[in-house]
Amino acid sequence: MTEAKKRHRPSRRLWPLVAALICGGVALNSTWRELGRSVITLLQILFEVGLACFIGSILEYRSWLRFISFLAAPLTRYGRLPAGCAAAFVTAVVSGNAAAMMLAEQRRAATLSRREMIFGALCLNAPAMISFSLTMMFPVVGTIGIAGAIYYGITYAISLAMLLLFLLAARISAPQAATTTTAAATAVPTTLPCYDWPTALRKAGRRTMVLLGRVMLITAPLYLLTAFALQRGFFRLGSHPLPSGWERWLTPETGTILAARLGGMLSAAGITAELLRQHQVTVIQVVFVFILGNIVNNPLRTLRRSLPVALGIYPGYDGALIVGIQSGLRLLLNIVAAAAIVIFFG
Question: If DSSP codes are grouped into helix, strand and coil, which group holds residue 343?
Answer without folding.
Answer: helix
